[in-house]
């Protein structure tokens, strides 16, 4: 009876198995990448070769065909035990694939075949090795108000702006850029698909942070980038408002973000367990595990871990069940699902931070040294709450309002 | 997408439906029973008539045949929303039935038909309306060291001792008494089945507590009670040690105890939601729900509630899966399951206390008045951590040791 | 080296000594008053006879002449160890006296001798045994927006409204009623001094709460009460705004409220210490104090208690120093002082609740029974956060804004 | 009315003023020293020139003559706002000086002039620029059981062992080494004074940690170091037991350690306040400070900060009062004082960690970048709980036992 997360679909099981297969390789250089702030390029290439990177690409387009967000979360969770930075990179790419695979048939059903075809094209690219870099955040703006603009020009669009925290920026072949579409009727929410080779695209290597140092979450500068007509998806909602696509994107992306927090906590827990069951202290030379304070600390870690796992797996099982119903989702319902997902994010990330902190304490100072993985995990796990779309300052208001039946 | 607990077996669904059917009646006099410290006798009778009391009695013996502990938890959880005291009373009885129904076939399989038959007899009694009163606790002794003694005499046993916190004592027809069996080879763990009519049995009405006031958890005094040979089950372990039966009894009984805590929290949450979405304050006359601090508080309640529900449902789904395997359970494995159950108990009870406290705060002082159900819920929910077998001072050591692979 | 609070002025030392002298008598019937919801009338009379009730009345008017709010807090803190309800009643009366004694000379200095004389008259009444009942709260209104109205009539004022939580209502000879003064230029903040014998005054015995049950904090109904001109103090600020007098009243009254919380925590701690150092448990019969979990719990209680004491004594030492400067206090400065006082209130009340809860846990279930003082302390201590003027939902915004230099 | 700590003696005021004078210089290169793990050598030299390093050296021996531990704490607190690593280095040196100045006259009074003279000699050395490096910790041993041995030889002592976390190791001229003295009657507690130039002394540059990176807390290897007779102080207690000197050393050293935690929290708070009162966010462009969640977070930070300051200043004011009584301190009394000090350590360090974490959250992700001082403060402040003599696993048992009147 282990409380570990487990996949529930055959495709998910294949993906999780692959992730576990990569663990030793990925973990082997995590400390080095953390120290140097270097992106784990070779490890990512290995994930591409094994098709783990193509988890959510349909099988017919070269992927594993994972359709369960729950199972995507489980695989990302496994990877994070070895390297949180790489796991985040894989997640942002895979979640984008999942969204394309989810939305495509719906666009077809609504008769919008061109968009559906474009999505298929992007998935095929992903299937053949293109990495997606998600460019959502901007300094000084919240998730619903991107300041990067897409303006129409004679033959398409011109894109201008600066994005931050663009994970995988060194290897991304295509950037998915949240933007403000300047329509005559007023600004709309939008997504621009920007090939790396587009003139005006530049990656500025700004990422030097407390943790998640190997994620290469640099800035992306977009200067008068000219894009073809089909490269910008104009969303159904105006700038500043939540749309179905934004909600789905958030629901798809956050699962893995939570899974990463959990994976970091699990890695810390495994390390602490190993530590206290092998180290002794003078003069009694009893194992640390034999001491009451250690037992108590391990108990609290175990309780938190079980709760975090239960919260995450139950929430994403419900997400799968909801999204699998086949009907188009009402925005109001999506808000409710999204509030549950945000609740899971808040809960699991806090607990993950607590768990790593408790493991650090259990290590009795040895974990504070840089040669211990705990010092990296302590820095990495603190990143989670800052991840979009809602900050810890914004999420409670959102969850509270949705719960209370007020407009979010 | 509600995070509420739901039954997973048909028998469980019937039980939960029955419980929900009783809610209005049970809730109607909960405040009165709490004030007066009176046992909800009529409500219990109604539960007997509907067979809800016989949830875990096999259908052929007059019950509902619920075999899923998970589903027992769900039904108890529903009852607790109306009256925690009654829910606890039902749980202790139903969990005893579950244990008898679970163990009987195993005794048959091991060739011990007399004990199996005795268990069938007890279940038949429960099916025809006998209420079980569990007598586990004693002042000044922990769970593994009952001081009540069963000594052999010419024609059976003599029982002496004093038990406390015997829920349902006014209506119990049969007391299940944890005792120390004085064998020549040393004291053993044991259970005595004591009919209320046995000479020497007396209920002392000592129960006057902060909360759970309607549970009539009085003292049971046993003075030279003579019992027939078959009335004492001598356990396989010596006094002071965990046995399979003790572990199974704890696993069976704690689920509903946790379910009660959750139900009290849910009731508080529903009341607080109703309160803040209907009350306004001068001079703005805005709804309380429109205020940021209220939204934030509701968000935290929602997060805690979702986590508590996930932890409880996942843990008992795993318990069902483990127990359903058919094999006899190794004590070592049962300890692991029991540690998970204790983790769920610690987590959910703490969260339930926090949730009720948050609801009290959300009510802005009105909940502090006795006319508000919140004041009762605040008192009731604090009882949970004191419930056997492990106190909050003992549980962390137990969970920690089991997790660390040390003898518990 | 005890961390207990101690008085710093000779008058304060006399007051604290008196309070300690009364402890045994006050504590003797606290459980009875709590159970019956009866006001501790005889105990209050004894405090009047010893002049403890007249702590803040100047010596020349028959009191002890305590001018240090810090020392008022210390004495109230002592009383609360025996009975929180009585301590609150004494505090509200004494804080009102303190405010009158503080403001009188300042009105004289500003040439407003009639108001100063009225204040002297009130203090003389207090010196000769009149008890003040503070009527601040109202259902459905916050502190700054009382809905009770004082309207001018030919020969004075007509007062109408309903106040709640009027501590000491059975014995109060004079009610100090926060009201909205209906001036032609718009509503103003105001205080009405209402003799109990005034036609139209009625006490409705509504107080039946979770805790502080002996405080008789009933409703006060004011129906067309005619008051003389001098009985209403029209404040300098309009209705809804903070004035100097309101800030001073809050600063004066809250100290004792915090002191009560601390005293309840100290009483719980003393009880728990006595419990764990005298009780043993089978089979080892070791003292509970010898068990690691007990030691750890006592340590956390000790840490919290030391921090709560330090916060309270340091804050009110600073209040004394600030108010003793002699100058009229700028409203802006008073807000800063008031924010410190609110911080102390938030901190100490939270810690007091935690401490009592920890003591309950340390008592291992015995404290949950009504015969234990812990069950009363657990209920009493939860009242504190609801006490005016700022609720736990309002205080953080106030403290935050003042700290950030924004208008509160 | 600021809640900042302030000195209470003239000598202390001079020291604090000096520390404040150095702040800009010290802070200027703190980020650089943190990044490179370089010791702030020039900054320390400046502190030596200004005599700040000689705070606790008597004036006649070239120091400032600070005798108040409270005031030592205040000065260290100021330094930590600029650089926690340097502040720790200064504290360990200054606390050693304080202890020598405190103990010297007591040895004289007891007729042990040689030891008193040796202490004067050490203080004179400190007055003329020698830096003390405290070597207390060892891997795999607790504070009371040092494994480094001092054995008698023909002309003095031979010292062998390895110490860790020896702050200031690059500049220390004299190491104060906690050791186990091998006496014929059994091992005793002891201190060895080891000049850096002693053959067999080697500093191993092992310090590479999560935070406090500039403190150069390297390992000290002692291989057959021959020391003169007078260089080893054989303590009155046997190895493994607390002695008066050990308790005084702990009381003297911990104050500044707590002051460092507080200073880091204050620096984080100042940074966060500056941040939220100057940054705006699209589309409203309101200041972050105008947002409710920010106000609330600042309020919690303010509450925690006020409580931490009150706890620290009150505790060390009591320490000064206790130690100033002139009498020799009974070990039992010293344990009580030490338990208060440990309580203050536990409380303030936890709150400091919370405050820095809250400031990081208030910064909305910007603080997570290495260019923000918050990322350094977040790492630095986590070091505190690991500092000797009692770990967070050991302190609760110690505090609890002393509070309960049990032998520690």
Question: Would you write up a description of this structure?
Answer:
The structure is a homotetramer of 408-residue chains. With 408 residues, chain A is of the alpha+beta class. In chain A, 50% of the residues lie in helices and 16% in strands. The first copy, chain A, is built from eleven helices and ten strands. Chain A has helices spanning 10-28, 30-36, 41-49, 69-82, 84-109, 113-127, 244-276, 292-323, 331-362, 373-381, 395-403; strands spanning 132-135, 149-153, 156-166, 174-183, 186-195, 201-204, 218-228, 232-238, 280-281, 286-287. In chain A, the strands form two sheets. In chain A, strands 1, 2, 3, 4, 5, 6, 7 and 8 form an eight-stranded mixed beta sheet that branches. In chain A, strands 9-10 form a two-stranded antiparallel ribbon. Chain A is globular. Chains A and B meet through α8, α9 and α11 of A and α8, α9 and α11 of B.
């Amino acid at each position: 009876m282990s409380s570990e997360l487990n996949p529930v679909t055959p495709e998910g099981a294949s993906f999780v198995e692959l992730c576990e297969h990569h663990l030793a390789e990925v973990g082997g250089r995590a400390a080095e990448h953390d120290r140097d702030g270097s992106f784990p390029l070779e490890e990512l290439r290995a994930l591409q070769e094994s098709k783990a990177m193509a988890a959510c690409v349909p099988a017919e387009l070269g992927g594993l065909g994972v359709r369960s967000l729950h199972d995507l979360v489980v695989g990302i969770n496994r990877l994070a035990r070895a390297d949180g930075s790489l796991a985040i990179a894989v997640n942002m790419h895979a979640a984008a694939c999942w969204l394309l695979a989810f939305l495509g048939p719906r666009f077809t059903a609504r008769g919008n075949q061109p968009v559906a075809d474009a999505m298929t094209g992007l998935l095929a690219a992903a299937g053949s090795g293109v990495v997606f870099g998600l460019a959502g955040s901007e300094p000084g703006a919240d998730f619903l108000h991107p300041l990067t603009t897409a303006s129409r020009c004679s033959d398409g669009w011109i894109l201008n702006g600066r994005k931050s925290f663009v994970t995988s920026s060194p290897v991304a072949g295509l950037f998915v850029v949240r933007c403000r579409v300047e329509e005559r009727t007023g600004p709309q929410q939008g997504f621009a698909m920007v090939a790396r080779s587009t003139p005006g695209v530049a990656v500025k290597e700004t990422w030097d942070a407390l943790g998640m140092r190997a994620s290469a979450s640099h800035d992306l500068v977009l200067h008068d980038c000219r894009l073809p007509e089909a490269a910008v998806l104009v969303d159904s909602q105006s700038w500043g408002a939540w749309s179905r696509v934004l909600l789905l994107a958030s629901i798809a992306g956050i699962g893995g973000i939570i899974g990463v927090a959990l994976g970091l906590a699990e890695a810390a827990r495994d390390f602490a367990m190993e530590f206290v069951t092998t180290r002794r202290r003078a003069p009694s030379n009893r194992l640390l595990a034999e001491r009451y304070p250690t037992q108590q600390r391990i108990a609290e870690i175990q309780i938190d871990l079980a709760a975090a796992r239960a919260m995450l797996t139950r929430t994403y099982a419900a997400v799968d069940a909801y999204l699998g119903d086949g009907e188009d989702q009402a925005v109001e319902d999506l808000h409710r699902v999204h509030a549950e997902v945000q609740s899971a994010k808040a809960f699991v990330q806090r607990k993950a931070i607590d768990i790593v902190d408790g493991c650090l304490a259990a290590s009795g100072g040895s974990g504070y040294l840089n040669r211990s993985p705990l010092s990296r995990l302590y820095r990495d796990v603190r990143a989670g709450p800052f991840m979009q779309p809602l900050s810890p300052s914004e999420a409670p208001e959102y969850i509270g309002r949705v719960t209370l039946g007020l407009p979010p």
